[in-house]
Amino acid sequence: MIHLTSKKYNCIIVEDEPIAAEILETFISRDPELNLIGKCSDAVYASNLLSIHEVDLMFLDLHLPVVKGFDFLKKLKNPPFVIVTTAYHQYAIEGYELDIADYLLKPIPYERFVTAVEKFKYLIEAEDALLEIAERDHIFISSGKKQIKIILQDIFYIESLREYIHIHTKTETFTFKMPISKIEESLNPNMFTRIHKSYIISKPKIEVKSATVVQIKGKNLPIGRTYKPFIDL
């Protein structure tokens, strides 16, 4: 996805409270880079919108009828960036585990909305600039104004911690601010595989493996339950 000078990010609102949805729509209309393509009050309608349109950002309320927000999000195979909206602060930790861009508590002040959208733009621009694959044996990853070259053969495993990833290589560890799912999309699945929400490993670097753990570079990495059926080690 390449955004040129006049950037437009498609977004949807998933919110069953009409007033809350209207407030978000008003906030979105003030940002010329945001293009609202739909509002929906439940997960079924949201799924339809996501299947029809290319969506960059979803404003997701957690307390939806029938299917709750996080349950809906967990079922999406390639979710867009998500800004969660809720009146309940106790769900924040679970939200960060799902790689959401930000978490807004209702009632949402406009300034806080702007901060969340700026965070989303930072993340999506990092993704856009992220992976320029010059050749099959290496990738370039943007860090500030620099492009850092990483040899794929040198990567042992990639670890996610909140909005950062740590790429552990033969000689050093590189840290970048981006979701792990974004770098996963750029890696050759014959060489790399996701074994856990927090780990991608290089298959040739496995030293020991079992049903629940793989050992790489002397470190035991857990195999997540949801990833087990899809892993070919």
Automatic annotation (TrEMBL):
SMART domains: LytTR, REC. PROSITE patterns: HTH_LYTTR, RESPONSE_REGULATORY. One of its GO terms (molecular function) is DNA binding. Residues 10-121 form the Response regulatory domain. It comes from the Bacteria. InterPro entries: CheY-like_superfamily, LytR-like, LytTR_DNA-bd_dom, Sig_transdc_resp-reg_receiver. The keyword Transmembrane does not apply. Residues 139-201 form the HTH LytTR-type domain. It holds the Pfam family LytTR. Gene3D superfamilies: 3.40.50.2300, LytTr DNA-binding domain. The modification 4-aspartylphosphate is found at D61. Keywords: Phosphoprotein. PANTHER family: STAGE 0 SPORULATION PROTEIN A HOMOLOG (PTHR37299:SF1), TRANSCRIPTIONAL REGULATOR-RELATED (PTHR37299). This is Sensory transduction protein lytR. The gene is lytR_1.
